[in-house]
Amino acid sequence: MSIVRGGGTKVGQPARCRVTFPAVRIVVAVKHVPDIQADRTLGQDGRLARDGGDGTLNEVDENAVEAALVVAESAGGAEVIALTMGPDDAVDAARRALQMGADSAVHVLDEAAAGSDALGTAHVLAAAVRKIAEDGPVDLVVTGMAATDGLTSLVPAALAAELGIVALTLAVDVTVADGAVVVRRELDHADETLRAALPALVSVSDRANEARYPNFAAIMAARKKPVAVWSLADLGVPPDEVGSAGARTRILAAEPRPARKDRVLVTDTGDAGAQLAAYLVEHKLA
Amino acid sequence: MTVLVLLDHTDAGEPRATAPELVALACSLGEAEGVWVGAAPLPAQLPSGLARVHRVAVANDWAPEGEHVAPVVSEAVAAVVDATGASVVLLASTFENKDVAARLGALHGAGVVTDADSVAVEHGTVVAGKTVLAGTWTTRVEVVAPLAVVLVKAGAADAAEPAAAPEVVEHAVAPSYVGGLVEVVERTERAGTGRPDLASAQTVIVGGRGTEGDFGPLEELADELGAAIGATRVATDEGWIAREAQVGQTGVTVSPRLYIGAGVSGAVHHRGGMQAAGTIVAVNNDPDAPIFEIADYGIVGDLFEVLPQATAELRRLRG
Ligand SMILES: Cc1cc2nc3c(=O)[nH]c(=O)nc-3n(C[C@H](O)[C@H](O)[C@H](O)COP(=O)(O)OP(=O)(O)OC[C@H]3O[C@@H](n4cnc5c(N)ncnc54)[C@H](O)[C@@H]3O)c2cc1C
Q: Does one domain contain both B214 and B293?
């Protein structure tokens, strides 16, 4: 990957989204995850049961797609490619991105990739981005800040590291202008504004924007958009580097936490505050 | 076995609350050595138990404030790993450190575990405990790579006492090309709240939409309990309280001994960040609020009545 292509301000654009490059190609990585509203369980192998049939696009990835689309729209004529990896139904995540407005999608589908840890996932996604870049340079990669299943938040920075590009993570605000991306982020102890020349990777927080809701026409239009299906062989990734075989962490044991015992529910009739104080003192919590 | 601890510190050089916890944990695993990245002055005292501390100067003409960005920190840690032959690196489990760990994984072959609440060495391999799926499952994860990078949650170990800083070993790294590409346009470190650190506090009181922006009753109870104050995303979105107070899936994860939620519905996104708490108390005027499904002690009532009364009664009971 290389590349920001040359300048030229688009005429007639409002100053707020002044864009000084003619076109960008944006890859947005999306993940299909079990619905967090449903009961989620781990299997014998400690892996998340993904056969519940109630999977959905990882919520924060909607913000990622939205951010990618906004950048693309302000750039005029940019191309947004949704990239996902996972079993058959993972394509639903990519489809959702297409419905929202992405132009095309890539689904990396390979049994050998199952059981990949976050680093294995980043390795495969990096190979896919490189293959996408064979058709034209990729300027920006966008991801969500975390996936609601594993919640490791490792994939964005690992993906950028594999691609040899900068990762600006946890963005609550993203602006692309003058061949660079500027991100505002709110960390535990500091607020920051970071800037980096493209190409770069940005991970967005759920606070970055309100994701659009596709209308019926958009949903119909998405059906005609192309979805490429690639195997690990297509990507030139040896199967033993990823999946369970390549994972550098192994789950030894997984157990549901025991149910909470002796739970109390009281309705305040005037002394619930005092009762609470007594409860806290009795249980040595105060 | 050499165990490195990244000593997180403020820009001015004050160690973060997690540093002494990580050092204590590292001492239980092997020979603990500290890593101090950047130009901030090394304090005279550091958590006790460190065999030495590696101070890594970042040679950067281009960005003096850029020495804390993830590529630079990960390169600094990698340099000390190379110099010491360490096989374990412990980092506080913050979003910034996750970026550091991800780079150590992708570029240096490390196996990474995030959000660990315990770490042990069993039969020569590193095994971390962590809760997953919004605190509803506990797992034990083994690292099967020569370098284990474990991100440890605040409060996972009792803090080591401060002691005179040990021998200092100086290192210098020149940031890689990528590290040099990040320009810090602006950085504002936030002042502390004067309360315990949210992530590691033993007691956390969280306010939601039900507070209608009035955190007064929560503040008073927090004073009485020595608690940290947290919030739901709604409360931070409304601007009632700073962003860093957000508890939940996309905010801070807390696992205090005592969690008190006031005017909090218990949305699944919020539960993801607090469900591992020891005791959960909820005050909500809607008997159908989902938080009651996980509360040890639920009160259906008005927080503006219940909290002040609880505070007054605690004062009375404890004289
Ligand atoms: C991708 C994504 C990520 C998110 N991440 C987070 C996150 O990290 N953390 C988070 O908190 N949320 C998060 N959310 C938002 C989450 O879904 C909920 O909207 C939010 O947690 C609800 O906040 P709340 O409980 O304050 O408000 P509400 O759900 O509106 O609940 C307010 C409660 O207060 C009660 N109440 C009102 N008045 C009183 C009174 N006087 N006394 C007692 N009770 C009263 C009501 O009965 C109600 O139950 C996220 C959402 C998305 C989509």
A: yes
Q: B204 and B174: one domain?
A: no
Residues B168 and B232 in one domain: no
Separation CA B116–CA B94 (nearest Å): 11
CATH 3.30.160.40 fits A19-246, yes or no: no
**Contact check, Cβ <8 Å, B102/A154:** yes
Considering the domain architecture, whether residues B70 and B155 belong to the same structural domain is answered as: yes
Number of domains in chain B: 2
Sign of CA dihedral B110, B112, B118, B121: negative
**Which of these, B35, B29, B6, lies nearest to B157 by C-alpha position?**
B29
pLDDT at B116 over 50: yes
Which domain covers residue B302, as residue numbers?
198-318
**Radius of gyration (Cα) for chain A, nearest Å?**
22
Residues B87 and B19 in one domain: yes
Residues B144 and B9 in one domain: yes
Instruction: Find out whether the beta carbon of B66 lies less than 6 Å from any atom of ligand 1.
Output: no
Q: Domain residues of chain A, as ranges? A: 19-246
In a domain, B191, yes or no: no
The Cα–Cα gap between A161 and B144 comes to: 21
| Separation in Å, CA of A53 to nearest CA in chain B | 17
pLDDT interval class at A43 (50, 70, 90): confident
Query: Which residue in chain B is spatially nearest to A182 when comparing CA positions?
Result: B185
User: Could you tell me the pLDDT band of residue A23, with boundaries at 50, 70 and 90?
Assistant: low
Question: How far, in Å, CA of B252 to CA of B260, rounded?
Answer: 15
Q: Which atom of ligand 1 is nearest to the CA of B212?
A: 38
ipTM of predicted complex: 0.91
Q: What is the pTM of this model?
A: 0.90
Q: In the prediction, which pLDDT does A51 show? A: 62
Residue closest by Cα to atom 37 of ligand 1: B210
- Test site for ligand 1: of B232, B254, B284, B294, most ligand atoms within 8 A of the Cβ: B232
Rg (Cα) of chain B, in Å, rounded?
21
